[in-house]
Structures are given as structure tokens and as C-alpha cells.
Design a protein that fits this description.
The structure is a single chain. The longest helix has 20 residues, at 317-336. The chain has helices at 4-22, 34-52, 65-80, 108-113, 169-187, 209-216, 256-262, 283-287, 317-336; strands at residues 84-85, 97-101, 124-132, 143-149, 154-155, 165-166, 195-201, 225-231, 246-248, 267-269, 293-297. Helices cover 34% and strands 15% of the residues. The chain has a single domain (34-336), classed as Aminopeptidase. Helix 1 (4-22) packs parallel to helix 3 (65-80), helix 2 (34-52) crosses helix 5 and helix 2 (34-52) packs across helix 9. It is built from nine helices and eleven strands.
Length: 349
Amino acid sequence: MISRTKLNASRFALSFLTLLATAPLAHPQAAPTASSAHAAFVREVHADMDFLAADELHGRGSATRDEHLAALFCAQQMEALGLEPGGQPIDGHPSYIQKSALPDPLNPRIVQMLGKFQDTPRTETWNAVAVLRGADPKLSGEVVLLTAHLDHLGMLKPGTGTDLIYNGADDDASGTTAVLTLMNAIAHGPTPKRTIVFALFGSEELGGFGNAAFLKDPPVPLPSIVANLEFEMIGRPDPLVPEGTLWLTGFDRSDLGPELAKHGARLVNDPHPDQKFFQRSDNYALAKQGIIAHTVSSFGLHPDYHQPSDELTKIDFAHMDQAIESMQSPILWLANTDWRPKWNPNGKP
């Protein structure tokens, strides 16, 4: 049971973050220094992680009210930045929320998976989607898509353990935070030539229902998406790759990873090919549509994966801060070039 003190603290945190995000943007006379930009990254990473992985969000269970709260949290940041809504209109007004009904009945495999979790209605899922229109008349019709999934596993049934909450700090509060932080940094800078879409998907853990809703009703034509980078589990370093690097699923399938690496991305090949991670994130559904889509990660197969122990105390924030910050310049390069990635021979799924 959540204590009144914890609940009040959570409400205060949400109110405080809302106040920060909705405050008028300052326009300093001088460009921010590298140190001040880094400090802003660090502040946002910690604030977003503190909210998304808090006990009070009950593990952001797929297609639950807590997933909806996480989506609203992301949508509020999108609105505060003045981005274009990419969701469905609500009462005739533009929205950042994309809602989609789940199949009824759910697949028996999914029902079995949910058997050990709290019995709660799971009838619809929520994405948060925003669009930053490109500034170049020729390139604004081309899109770079940045994604993560905002849901996790939720809570165990009472009496089934001492820690009932699957906080999902690494999986995938870390990826959601990466997209939000990059979104904030990019929105505060010069508008890129290409359009950038920021999409946080719901119900990935149930089988990708959020990305299916996005593909069914995208805010931009799917053929206009030149590349998708999904961020998944970047909260800890992987000991199988050099310090300070990330890995890209399906690195050999296209020329996107090597080209981003040429422009400063600390990306290497996925050191866990036997795990088939390319097929295990939201990027795969996009890749099957022909979109060059990969996942950025540093998951080192730690034992807290899909366990209640995936908590904030296990996050290596120094690694995570550096990981997110290291991707900003390469992504901006991709959003400002006319270069288009392509599948390598036999690389397209």
C-alpha cells in the first residue's frame, strides 16, 4: 500500500515538473555553454527518471491507468515545447495522445503472461506523439523518427512477493527519458532541415500494440520516414563493448549505424546476436514496413531484466547522461543532411 507521504511527494513531483515544463522559455543573449548544456541534460534525465520509475507509477503496466499517466506526462512536455500534436483530436482539438483499443479478447498467450500480475482493466493503450516540422522547404518532407516504449510490466498480485512493483527503470524509463531529453534539447536549438517525429509507444510489453496504432494512423506518411532510432535500456553500460559506447541492433543490416558513427555517434555492433534484439523492440514493426529502423541500447543482459529489482538505484546515471548526450550531434546531423540510409543486401527484414 502506498503511504500518504509517498503519494503527496509524487503529486508534488508531478506538479513541480509540470511547472518547470510549462514555464516560459528564456531567451539568453549568449548561446549556452557546453557545461550549461550538459547540466541541463543531467537535470532532465534525473527528473524524468525520478517520475517514470517511481513506485507511485506502479510499474507503468501496459494498457493500465499508469501507462496512461506516463503518456500524459510525456505529452505535457511536448505541449510545453510548442511542438505540433501528432495524436488524435480530442473534442475537435489537436492532441499529443494516440489512443488505441486492444484486441478483445486478448491472445491467450498474453492472458497467461498477465496471470501473475495485478488484475486491472486492459482495454486500450496510449502513445504520446509530437512533430517538429523541418525548416527546409525541400527536406521538411523527410522524417527522422525517435522512439521508445513508455510502458512496463506493472505490479504483481498482492501476496506474491515482498516487492510487487516492476519499476522498469532501465526497461524502458531510460529509453523514454532519452527521447524526452533529446526532444527538449533539439526543440531549444535551431530548427533542423528535416522533420523530426518523437513517439513514445504504449503496450510494447504486451506485443507492440502501441507501435501498431502508430503504423495504422501515423502523423506523417510512412514512406517519408528516412530513419527510425528506438532507444531501449541505456541505463547501464554493457561490459562487452568499450566504455562510453552504445550498440545498435541490426548494425550490419543497413548503412545507418556506420554513417552515424562517422559523425560522432559512439555506436558499435550488437554484441549479443544470439538474443535477436533487432526483432525484439518496436523498431522491428517499422523495419518490416521498409523503414530503416534500429534500436540503440547498452543492455548487458543484467539479472534485473523484467524483475522488480530494475529500480532507479541500479541506474548508472553517469553512463546514461553521456549516452544520451553523445547521440544529440549525430541525430542533428541526420536531421540536417540530404543523405538517406539504405538497407544492405539481404538486410531488410
